[in-house]
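Supplementary Note 3. Input sequence used for the single-chain structure prediction.
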Amino acid sequence: MEYLIACFKITGDPNLLQPSRELIADGVASAGFESFEDTAEGINGYVQKSLLDKDALDAFIHDFPIHDVKIEYTMSELEDKDWNEQWEDSGFAPISIGNKILVYDSRHTDKAELSADDVQLKIGIEAKQAFGTGTHQTTQMVLSSLLDIQLAGKRVLDCGCGTGILGIAASKLGASSVVGYDVDEWSVKNTQHNSEINEINNLEALHGNVDVLSHVCGVFDVVLANINRNILLQDMTTFKSVMASQAVLIVSGFYKEDIPLLLSKAAELGLTETNRRTDGDWACLQLLS
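The predicted structure, written as discrete structure tokens, is reproduced below.
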């Protein structure tokens, strides 16, 4: 998958540097950007080459709402390689979710050390170019939401499955079957690999975007989507079309200030909010069909 990096340089009042970074990250998401990192002079944004909407990007920069700063950017291609390699080699410390789920790095954790942990379930993750190890607040909130749902015998859909952590958790919590999909082929392979690590045999991972659901038979009792705001808004109609009556949709991957947008779209589709979680600037909504 080909990625581009946009290096945004912010000049002007130093006190406006951080607010400008936050506005850029929020604003250019509509142009397809999906991840960011702060730099000394501003912020870098990463976008799949095929998803970049340059007109939307340039329009946002032209109409940037903070007038006391100047925003410039340069765009370049990233080498197609495993950008998580260094992170993968160092791994991550075990993460506890509500003292009921323990997510651990399957390559760097001594399983004997985990034996004393009295938790409902343990999930081993080996990350390969995929989002979702449990370290991010949005993943943790979705996992916490799963603990509140009766999953026994339920059919679950994991949209943008990444490492497969959410689908694996759903399976271990009793789901009868899980279907996941991701636009990143690395993520699909990683989900399959992590399913094997966790001895999960009822999870199917598909390569593609939301359109792959047109080839999936039946409806789902629980739909999970930890994706950025604009993809959620774009794909929620399709999510609704594959949800059973009284099905649950759990969405995250967006900021608290985006909640009204998501709820407005949900209302259009006849989805009702039943719960919400926030952690820092991030939010997670639980919706009922």
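The first helix runs from residue 17 to 27. The domain at 136-288 is CATH 3.40.50.150 (Rossmann fold).
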